[in-house]
Amino acid sequence: MAYNCVVLVKQVPDTKRITGQAMNEDGTVNRAALPAIFNPEDLNALELALNIKDQFGGTVTVMTMGLPAAAEVLRQGLYRGADRAILITDRRCAASDTLATSYILSCGVKKLNPDIVLCGRQAIDGDTAQVGPQCAEKLGIPQITYVEELIKLDGKTIVVKRNLGNGWQEVKGRLPVLLTVLDTANEPRVCCAKRLMKCKTAACGPEVETQIRAANPGASDEQVKAMAKQQGELLKQKGLLIEQWDLDMLNADLQWCGRDGSPTKVHRIQSVVLTAKESKSVEPTQAGVDAMIHELIVDHTLG
Ligand SMILES: Cc1cc2nc3c(=O)[nH]c(=O)nc-3n(C[C@H](O)[C@H](O)[C@H](O)COP(=O)(O)OP(=O)(O)OC[C@H]3O[C@@H](n4cnc5c(N)ncnc54)[C@H](O)[C@@H]3O)c2cc1C
């Protein structure tokens, strides 16, 4: 049996290469100071989906919700072997917390009706690990989190190994299912040179418009739009136009999207930088550890 997989991939700031002030005054992330990358564990989710396709046949669709710039992770997905790329982008998605993000993504997934939905376990920026499980809940399908290995896929039955940190679980489930995948699950494949050459011009509508505007600085807005439409048609014929969906196309209920759909309120963001004088060496002996635990209990950090 062939399986249709949807992989939810997120473009995230590279938290290991900060090139300026990471946070804005208002507590939001200053994305300009952080180069954007493919969320690492989403590469593992994509690799698992591509393995399923290699073994059983079917399709792999990569989907992201973000600004048009997030199309870059979709291109990366195409270079690695995904068949289809979908960008959910809409101004009304702005300020979505995890609940709204999962609602919007689940509306997108519903349109594709896949057998298996794969997510990374966690994004390295938001770091909540909530989006996968919340999507499963909204889709009304079972979820298996912390997946480290696909043991068996047979008809509508899936068996996977979960890594719980201090042990493993073998879990059997029924399709359709949502999996959240760990970084220990596999070694993500690198981009395929042939596919890179084929898909490097893949772009979403706003990217096409930006390219046309840059190449034709004297053109009016109408001229740019007309040229972008023409270029978009050409890309579509070659299968290189990254599909762009908005909330209307998803039939999304706006009260569950963006700020309105986000019950999380961030009151304050504090940047904690520990200085050397705030760190303390602990003797690597039982007495040293006992003394540290005693100290932590006394100042109510523990207990
Ligand atoms: C009050 C509030 C306001 C916010 N406002 C904004 C804002 O204005 N702009 C902004 O960019 N962020 C905003 N965020 C952050 C945003 O909510 C999170 O980035 C998003 O919900 C994902 O959560 P996470 O990063 O914890 O993902 P996790 O739950 O850790 O991600 C798990 C997995 O879910 C999938 N996934 C997560 N997000 C996406 C996505 N967007 N597309 C595809 N797959 C995905 C991936 O597979 C990922 O590995 C806001 C958060 C809060 C709390």
Write structural notes for this entry.
The protein is α/β, with parallel strands linked by helices and 303 residues long. The protein folds into 2 domains: 3-204 and 242-256, Rossmann fold (3-Layer(aba) Sandwich), CATH 3.40.50; 273-303, no CATH class. It is 33% helix and 21% strand. The chain has 8 helices and 11 strands. The chain has helices at residues 40-56, 71-80, 98-112, 131-139, 193-199, 205-215, 221-237, 286-298; strands spanning 3-8, 11-13, 36-38, 58-65, 84-88, 116-120, 143-154, 157-163, 168-174, 177-181, 243-245. The strands form 2 sheets. Strands 9-8-7-10-6-1-4-5-11 form a 9-stranded mixed beta sheet, sandwiched between helices. Strands 2-3 form a two-stranded antiparallel ribbon. Helix 2 (71-80) links the parallel strand 4 and strand 5. Helix 3 crosses helix 4. The longest helix has 17 residues, at 40-56. The radius of gyration is 22 Å and the shape is globular. The termini are far apart. It binds flavin-adenine dinucleotide (FAD). Flavin-adenine dinucleotide (FAD) binds at residues 8-10, 39, 41-42, 45, 64-66, 94-98, 101, 105, 119-120, 122-123, 125-132, 262, 264, 266. Flavin-adenine dinucleotide is lined by residues 8-10, 39, 41-42, 45, 64-66, 94-98, 101, 105, 119-120, 122-123, 125-132, 262, 264, 266.
